[in-house]
Amino acid sequence: MLTLSVKKLVEVTGGVLLAGDENTMVNGLAIDSRDVGPGAAFVAFAGERVDGHEFIGAALGAGARAIVVTRDDETIREAIVHSRRHNVALVQVEDATSAVQELAAYHRERLMCPVIGVTGSTGKTTTKDFLRSVLGTKMRVVATEGNKNNELGAPLTIMQAGADTGVLVVEMAMRGVGQIARLAQIARPTAGLVTNVGVSHIEVLGSEEAIASAKGELVAAIPESGRVFLNGDDSWSAALADRTQAAATRYGLGEGVDVRATEIDLSDTGTPVFLLTAEQGSVRVELPIPGRHNIYNALAAAAVGLYLEVSLEDVALGLREATFTGMRMEVFQTASGVTVINDAYNANPTSMRAALGALVDVPAEHKRIAVLGDMAELGSLEELAHFRMGEHVAQLGLSALVTVGPRARRIADGALAAGMPSEYVRPCATTDEASEVLDDLISAGDVVLVKASRVMGLERIVDGITNPHV
Predict the structure, then answer these.
(1) DSSP string, 21-85
(2) Quick one: which of 50, 291, 419, 451 is 20 to 30 A from 5 by CA?
């Protein structure tokens, strides 16, 4: 973890020491007072809804040794005095985000382990989870926790690594041009993995070409001595490969790739089973989650694992035993016998089609029901993308479609236009309305997929299925 003196902290951040001893040593860093450990630095962020400066007392109570603030006032000074901690250093910086990023960059310079950067329009979090499991069969892995993959999450991940870390895996998300380049500048990845290029964030970037360019910022940051991992079945991979001097490893289902899946089948529970073939040989793999699209995520992790000299057998073991970030193809059965596929964290047309494919693959005793909410950030494609998703749903032969939100109403319209019987289609305005519909609709033996962009909060529907209204 991050370890440095207050003097070095001030130097790295360009801050000013307001109080305390510059020779005080700091071990670790947190931006949430609940995450502060003994000896850590606490960085207070002044957000729109929560001001971290109000939690300085809590951070001190948890053992913080340094407090980093963006303002100096009497309340802050009083908190330190009342803590009766005379060895606490108080540092003021101009910008808290920049301070955290600069400290992460400083820490990264001292790490000796490989650093794997992961990005892509879809699948990057699941791929990261597969990676952590595969690489963890051989070495200590520090990887992005949950979905902390932004301008603060990535630096915090970097600062968790230490001398005993065998590999650091940093997931990198973006909403605009230059953001991945900045994260790569901080993380200095020795290898980069791009899962695919799709239409996520097209509202912000304007075109798929612009999205590919933004994702390519990771590829461009990989040194010639490093390695790039690309989806060989994605049409943008050739253009991405042109942006680096590093060697490229391609994975996929087609011929000519370096790491390939063939003989694809489904297990009794609907999870993919396939033969993984690479230069090192072949091994049979069974994944622990449904969805044929997850074969690509598994292949990506396998390619990186083999590059880092994980054996084929351990790759297969790691893929089979992987655990995943919440609300990412999370499959469970309720006490009432309903199988739920909770993929409610995020959605775009590519990932929603993939999730619907998983719904069809999972065995069902009775009904298959899709609960689909709004897909955000689609810009000018919004109307058409939702309508066409409805057309696709109508072709799958599902028992029911429940839509949630104003955009998703066009999914219902598309399904009806494509011939899905009107009694099978239930458009809802809110999650509460959808939960009431589902209370009457679902029964034991049904399989229900819940999928939407994060802003819709469809986890409330999942809670409602798990605990039906009386």
Answers:
(1) -TT-EEE-EESSGGG--TT-EEEPPB-SS-BGGGGHHHHHHTT-SEEEES---HHHHHHHHHHT-
(2) 50
- pTM score over 0.85: yes
| Token duo for residue 116 | 């794997």
Beta strand pairing status for 425-428 and 227-231? unpaired
Residue-level length of the chain = 470
**Which among 96, 18, 27, 13 has a CA at the least distance from the CA of 65?**
27
Residue 261's H or E segment, with its range, is strand 259-266
Residue 359: left (phi > 0), alpha (psi -120 to 50), or beta? alpha
Domains 111-320 and 330-466 share a fold: no
User: What are the C-alpha distances in Å from 145 to residues 149, 156, 160, 347?
Assistant: 8, 10, 10, 20
Architecture in CATH of 3-95 = 3-Layer(aba) Sandwich (3.40)
Give the pLDDT score at 199: 58
What is the distance between the alpha carbons of residues 321 and 74, in angstroms, rounded to a whole number?
53
pLDDT of residue 343: 92
The vertex-351 CA angle with 350 and 356, nearest 5°, equals 105
Domain extent listing, the chain: 3-95, 111-320, 330-466
CA neighbor of 306 nearest in space, from 282, 289, 329: 282
- 462 token code pair: 């999942």
pLDDT digits (tens, 9 = 90+) for 46-74: 888 889 999 999 999 999 999 999 999 88
**CATH class for domain 330-466?**
alpha beta
- The CA-CA-CA angle for residues 113, 109, 164, to 5°, reads 35
Which one, of 203, 168, 204, lies nearest residue 183 by Cα? 168
Q: Per residue in 266-284, pLDDT tens?
A: 999 999 999 999 999 999 9
Domain 111-320: state its class: alpha beta
Contact between residue 119 and residue 171 where contact means Cβ atoms under 8 Å apart: yes
Evaluate whether 411 touches 403 at the Cβ level (below 8 Å).
Answer: yes
Which structure tokens are listed for 147? 């979905």
| Helix residue ranges, H only, 195-250 | 202-205, 208-221, 237-241
CA torsion sign for 361, 362, 364, 367 is: negative
